[in-house]
Amino acid sequence: MKENTRMSIDWNTEVAKIRELRAARTKVGPGTTPAVVVVDFQRAFTEHENIGPSTAIALEHTNELLVAARAAGVPVIYLVMILDSLDDRMLAQRVRSSLTERCGRGNPWTEISSAVPAQPGDHIVEKTVASGFYKTRLEDLLHELGVDEVVMTGTSTSGCVRATVVDAAYRNFRISVVEECSDDFRTLSGEVSLWDMQDRFGDVVSKSWMLDRFAALQTERALDGAGVSL
């Protein structure tokens, strides 16, 4: 009988390896007109039975990022799963038990988490599947706002965040996934997805790097408003 090589894999070593690969991977680079996209940070996905401490931490990081984005005049877009019928879900979610069962229109579980509350001027886009682009107004909204870069936050990293990133890449948007602001209670899936997105679709960046960008953008726009040339 052949040895089961899968059982002999040291997954801690593998995770360390993909983190190194992710850090070394060539960056695509940011755009000039970003928007922050908040994926599914609603109660159904932030208060369920399987979440761990990482969720509250990611929400706290995200709220800090959103405050900075708004101060810099960067649009904030919330993606929320809202279903008029549970039959609107993809087949796998209808066959298996899924948190999407809590996403019927009017269900309190669909509310955006109070840890990252929407503010006047923010945009809310409803969706029915993992990708924020599938049969939604997201692409049209991004074009209306003149956006060339999506700054990705939300949950889950391996599910709805990744699906939205893939579709954004297909539409040639620049992509910046903020690591501290992305959450996945499936820890290994989240790590692998961060590497996959950095390798194939866009950039994974730190919150501190993005906050510095937003601060610089805020200063630049303030000087422009005052008629001062750099």
Architecture overview:
The structure is a single chain. Strand 2 (76-81), helix 4 (91-95) and strand 3 form a beta-alpha-beta unit. The chain has one domain: 3-Layer(aba) Sandwich (Rossmann fold), CATH 3.40.50. It has 230 residues and is of the alpha/beta class. 42% of the residues lie in helices and 16% in strands. 36% of the residues are buried. The protein has helices spanning 11-24, 43-46, 53-71, 91-95, 138-144, 157-170, 187-200, 207-225; strands spanning 34-39, 76-81, 123-127, 149-155, 174-183, 203-205. GO terms for molecular function: hydrolase activity. It comes from Conyzicola lurida. It is an enzyme of class 3 (hydrolase). Residues 35-206 form the Isochorismatase-like domain.
Brief descriptors of the model:
alpha/beta, 8 helices, globular, Isochorismatase-like_hydrls, Isochorismatase-like_sf, Isochorismatase-like_dom, Maleamate amidohydrolase, EC 3.5.1.107
